[in-house]
User: Fold this.
Amino acid sequence: MRTWLLVTLLVICGAVLAQPQSGGVLRVGMQTDPVGLDPHLTNATASRNMLENTYETLVAFNSAIEIVPGLAESWETSDDLLQWTFYLRDALWHDGTPVTASDVKFSIERIKDPDVASPRSSNFATVEQIDVIDDRTVVFTLSQPFTPLLSFFASSLNVIVPQHVVEEHGDLQNVVVGSGPFRFVEYLPQTRLVLERFDDYWGVDGDGNSLPYLDGITFTFYPDATARSTAIQTGNVDWIEYVASVDVSPLEADPNVVVVGGPTANYRAVQFNHERPPFDDYRVRQAFAYAIDKQMIVDLALFGVDGVVATGATVPPGNFYAVESPYNVRDVEKARELLAEAGFPDGFEFEFYVTSTYSFLRDPAEVVQSNLADIGVTANIKLEDWSIYLPNYLAGEFTVILTGSSGQADPDAFLHTPFYSTSSGNWISFADERVDELLDAGRLEPDPSVRREIYREAQERILHVSPMVFLFHSAQYSANRPNVQGYEFYPNGSYLGFRTTWLDN
Amino acid sequence: MIIFLSRRLLMTIPTLFGVALIVFLLMRAIPGDVVTQLIGVGEDVSPERMDELRRIFGLDLPVHVQFWQWLTAALQGDLGSSLRTGRSIATDLMLRFPATLQLSAMSLGIALMLALPIGIVAARYRGRWPDYLGSAFVLIGLSVPGFFLGILLILLFSLRLGWLPPAGFVPLFEDPLESTRRMLLPSLSLGLILAAATTRIMRSAMLEVMERDFVRTARAKGLAERVVTMRHALRNALIPVVTVVGLQFGSLLGGTVIIEQVFSIPGVGRFALEGINLRDYPVVQGAVLLISAAFVFVNLLVDVLYALIDPRVRYG
Assistant:
């Protein structure tokens, strides 16, 4: 946290002191390849992060995760919240043709199309009809008010794509024509992905200089964390993603490297399968919440840098919608009492399902195991590879599991997906009438301060019935050479910051 | 020889078919499919929609129908395209196989350059200090895991000395010099370990041959020890070495996933592993087909080499 503030200050100071320079190619060291190049057909973070500067969304997030204009210059909603009108700006596709309202209609309908294999077709389930008024105006008609809609439009895989290119090629897996600040040049799997500046991009900075500043970005791939750290230290690349937690301090100590990062939008929790006793009893779940020492997990398993303690529910501390959890002070006595009340004065044994693939989901399990031993509960850890563990989780084949999910922006995404009784993202079979009522109300309410009250009550109810023990929110770090300036850290893990990055040579 | 070769070539057909079938069934026996791996954790996708996605990917068909469809297409030379990236699998294999071949060949080169001299010298000076040095080399090489050696090499040659880039790949025909430079560390990581195993075989084969009558005869007729070793003993000792090296080369072609991962080399092994993790069935099938074909081919090559080294070996 301290480092993060310091780095933010440095970035701000740098931005004030130095005038951005145009030119130069940024060499970026990525962890993995994109999983497909068609943004509508994938949920992979790697695809998003390499493509989000080639395409654009209707509206976008800024680095404070507020909604700002994207391809739409402005928008308005009808009083009944059922009609959303977007006014597009003058923008060009990379092949020189103009971006039109029909492209917008086509793109959202493509994501919704049951015959297109998009994993996000449900994002726009409430969109009933899309009307093109003229080349620059498009109207979305909803079946019911749905206030999180803008956050789905801003999600940078739900981009606007050119209708004529999709119709010519069938899909966008082998061709990338966007309207973003960078144009796609080539992709050689596990070797490199090359972007170059799109000269006709509409964006300008505060002084009227055209964006982006960079002439291009070359992504290369370093799956191994040590190789990636070495590449930035030796200057083989200018910027790397995903600094491993063990490498944060050594890289901070290197005068040729600047580490940037902080907590990101996600949650990690011990999750109970509500269909399997004794975890259908909220007292047992509360006992776990009191027994687990979240600070110890962050200090020991995350080296103190890889995350922050979850002081609320799924919404991270600092967020406008965050609340305080009653479990923020460990209370072993209370946990024992609750267990005794539930009929387990001597504790019990259970199978604790953990993935071996990611250290941030594996190492906390040992702390949880030893914490639970203090209340007489024996957690038998079962370790499996992510590619086996994930399908088992999705199939409900677990009793208690340590896992989490990332990339949320709106409180609806943080709460509705995992906790609404009929949500398909509710993998733990949790159901609570009061929670459902509140989550419904949140979707209908446009006023942020009223929404905040609704979501506060929902989270307090969730914390009381304790369907998960919220442990921590992961942090994410990138590192760059000191001459890389103007890069902004996005807490949703997005790399839109490359749009304002420049090289001080 | 031609009859022998054509018979061996014919025998590869059931082998490849068997491998393809087993892999096909194994992939479907592990939990999850391309749909579960596509959706991930944080998405609200109804079970009906998941079934719909399975239908789009053709996973709703019975397994034997799916296998038959794959097989008939593969027999016509069509390996299909990836379920996740939409890229042609044949194209991707053509991109990756040269990288694997280059890495394997360079590793093998390094291994042989080290193993043959060390093995011969160790055998000639059996029980004396060169032999002990050789044994130490073998012991260390066999006990150090490849990825660990790889990371140590990166830390030494890239971070400390700054001589070589830590990882990254440049296609051979794009820039042969830079490509070779970048392949040095991974080849060294694999080559050193391979050299250790080969040294041991070379040494024991030499020792065994040196006991033989014809060596005693050669010595008795007054040939110099150097000539005895190099002309008479070495050639006979090479047969077991060729077998082992051939098998090792075959498995190198199958991918050296961990080294490819550490040094970011776009090899066939990583391609297959990615396919397995994403449950991208056609990718796995295509990659395994290529790997097993390469393995079978190398074995065939070894048999031919036998005949070249040892004219007594007759095939009928």
